[in-house]
Amino acid sequence: MTHIAFIGLGHMGLPMARNLLKAGFAVKAFDLQKNAVEQLAAEGAIAASSAEDAAQGASAVVSMLPASRHVEGLYLGENGLFSKLAPGTLVLECSTIAPDAARHVHAAARERGIELLDAPVSGGTGGAAAGTLTFMIGGAASTLEKARKLFEAMGKNIFHAGPEGAGQVAKVCNNQVLAVQMIATSEAMAMGVANGLDPAVLAEIMRQSSGGNWTLEKYNPWPGVMPHAPASNNYSGGFMAELMTKDLGLAQEAAQASGNSTPMGALALQLYRLLIKQGKGKQDFSVVQQLFVE
């Protein structure tokens, strides 16, 4: 592969594109925020003036966009990117979108002979920068093998979740668990501190005990416990609360479609919606800690 189009240079997309550059791929990138494109161009990428410009002559396209409507708007319709791509082009759609939307995009790609994988990620901005992301991939196993070197340049754990849309189902399941863990950890941290415990001591006790979880290991929501966590930087950076809210909404849609009961996920969604109403949507999702502190 000599030409990779990368579309969407946000908090996750920019470091992912950087890792493709580091791996020796030629990257032509586009984002609506010109400063992100200019930053990547200064590091060796080619700046594109549009998504179509980025994808012209590309052997693979990687996209990292906020929501289903952005992905469908990019690829579908008479002027969508699928109408511009050559048959056989690989498309790695790494956004987190609704499973049904992913299947819709898959169907449109298949009609034009384009090989698409829905491949949402986990690992946060730190994992994106370090090249240690987890990819949850839906689509044909043969297509995954064609794209494996691209995934390996950006991530460490590459899972074939199943057929079209399966990557998105895996992602919303994972993020529902993450949100519930974060809320439970925040509740416990607030309760312990209110009862006189040192937050760092409490966090370590729980981390080493049966309450241990990823949040306590990597992403404690109490300010000062982990110096590099968003909580210790006024909840800036990381994964925005509004994006977690979006993902929890997608999880509820998936649960409704399959008839599953997910009361913890439903409660998590309501708490994150409350954060949005409080104007905290742009802060890291660990800002949910503030709901439990007077």
Automatic annotation (TrEMBL):
Coiled coil: none
Residue ranges occupied by any 3-hydroxyisobutyrate dehydrogenase-like NAD-binding domain in the UniProt entry: 165-289
Keyword hit for Oxidoreductase: yes
EC assignment: 1.1.1.31
Pathway recorded for this protein: Amino-acid degradation; L-valine degradation
Keywords on record: Branched-chain amino acid catabolism, NAD, Oxidoreductase
Enzyme's top EC category: oxidoreductase
GO terms, molecular function: 3-hydroxyisobutyrate dehydrogenase activity
PROSITE patterns (alphabetical): 3_HYDROXYISOBUT_DH
Reactions listed under catalytic activity: 3-hydroxy-2-methylpropanoate + NAD(+) = 2-methyl-3-oxopropanoate + NADH + H(+)
Annotated Pfam families: NAD_binding_11, NAD_binding_2
Domain 6-phosphogluconate dehydrogenase NADP-binding, first and last residues per copy: 4-162
Family (UniProt): Belongs to the HIBADH-related family.
Protein name: 3-hydroxyisobutyrate dehydrogenase
Origin species: Ectopseudomonas mendocina
